[in-house]
Amino acid sequence: MDHEIARSSTTAGLPVAPTLSPSLEAAGVGRGNTLVDRRSLLICLLSLPIGAAAGVVAQLLTALIYGVTNLSFYGRLSLSPASPWANALGLGVIAVPVLGGLVVGLMARFGSDKIRGHGIPEAMEQVLLNESRIPPRLTFLKPVSAAIAIGTGGPFGAEGPIIATGGALGSLLGQVVRVTAKERKTLLAAGAAAGMAATFGSPVSAVLLAVELLLFELRPSSMVPVAFASATAAGLRALWHGSAPIFAMPAVSAAGGLALASYAVVGAVAGLVSVGLTRAVYATEDAFDRLPVHWMWWPALGAVAVGAVGYFAPRTLGVGYENISDILSAKLALGAVIALCALKFVSWCIALGSGTSGGTLAPIFTIGGGLGAALGSAAALLLPHAGIDPRVAAVVGMAALFAGASRALLASVVFAFETTQEPNVLLPLLAGGAAAYLVSALLMRNSIMTEKIVRRGVRVPEEYEADYLDGVLVRDGSCHRVVSLRAADPVDVARTWLASDAPGTRHQGFPVLDAAGELVGVLTAREIALAPDPAAPLGSLVKRPPVVVFEDESLREAADRMVEAEVGRLPVVRRGAARHVVGMLTRSDLVGAHRHRLRAERLD
């Protein structure tokens, strides 16, 4: 009764039965020979208009911020570049951010509360919980609310809202065009990356940021469309503004050994500060949560601090990209840099905690640049012959603080390199960024990007590795001695054998073979026990075509096939002999395969 089919006894290359079941034919298709397919080409084509649209949106939002700034601080109707710094409002400057906060609060209350925050965590939440579906109205409400908040003096960068708006554009197109949830996620990430590239002219770091914070994977089918969108947006920006770096700095010398070690220490300190910065932001947010007033009023309350700080330090108002350039070029006295960064932190922390609309990148870069400049100046005094350049330390501090706060290490390093176009800072950036990332990961579980959504019970993937099951072949993870049943045997014979407690009777499922030893189907012990006619041949109980897996396919493909077919075991066959069983694969085998992975992670 119990036919034991050993793998070695199966003859390879036997002719395939002329009438294969649909399931066998489907199994024969297997995985293609390429990493992308025609669907990937479609998503790449869709990414191009998304990149172009994000590039246009970046210009429109920047112009809108200038328009609000001109109107709020200078009482003129103009879209020309303007900064709040030179206003002559006196104490009246405090009222401008408050009015902006009131408008943003009203837009959030009666438009959509999703406009609150700096954009990236909200986009991450839509990716993880809502199949990357961003409500279409956010495509309009987010940039307008951010323009009002920033144009009235909010201490934010324009990049966060532009990234969020680009992501909303990608999501919107993914809801109009019939695509899968994974493809919609790619389109959302493409729009977000394009928004960042259009703002800073940093297409490579934009792709890396999308990978580290939105895609949660590194696959050709997702990365290539994001790269196309980012390149398109950066190309449009170059047409409008040229290719000069947004944070230009003087040429610097290559770092020696001691200087490089000093920059790594600067990065480690920045990592420590990033932990305190993140905790301060969320402590402020918690403090606003405890206020006995509706959250609609919080942006206006936070704006009181923004206006008050702005009265004493006008440079803290608005976007402040000029601050970053001046810090990296050492155009500001060290005392002024320290005061600016300290006050910028207070203003930004309170404003962001109040739930208004704005970005985090520019404030973090400003604070990090000032921190690096201060630490670099101190190190240069202590080690005068080490060749430490405070300007390089400023770049390292800028990137390291963002790497520690966001856990986007590669994006941070490449961003600082792209926006300065100074090749000699790349090695210090890598050393400092890695040190900051290490310190931050040791001291803080979540980042400034993930803490908010983790508090809502969302699990955010932060470690990306290849699927272990995708690297294990079925032949290496399945049982090669198979207990089978004969299709011609009656049910009662099978029941008697199952009740005998003989070897193999404890299995839950059995392949059923015909007289030629070819697969007819799979029966479970339960199906045999519940069969109404004990004299019926076992073959008559098979009601569905067999679903099989080839021995050279991966355990990931086998697991997916089990899920799709709603079965718990698969006969293993060879190509060219798809009806000759050489093994059996069960769900337990899939779980057991992970023993090797766990063993590799343990110390010997």
Descriptive labels:
7 strands; elongated; four-stranded mixed beta sheet; Clc chloride channel; 604 residues; 23 helices; alpha/beta; CBS-domain; three-stranded mixed beta sheet
How would you sum up this structure in a few lines?
The chain is of the alpha/beta class and 604 residues long.
Explained architecture:
58% of the residues lie in helices and 6% in strands. The protein has helices at 22-29, 38-74, 95-110, 120-129, 138-151, 159-176, 181-200, 203-215, 220-241, 257-289, 298-312, 321-328, 334-353, 361-382, 390-406, 409-420, 426-443, 451-455, 474-477, 491-498, 525-529, 555-565, 587-600; strands at residues 3-6, 481-486, 509-513, 519-524, 549-550, 569-574, 577-586. The strands form 2 sheets. It has a 4-stranded mixed β-sheet. Helix 6 packs antiparallel against helix 7 (181-200) and helix 8 packs antiparallel against helix 16 (409-420). The protein starts with a strand and ends with a helix.
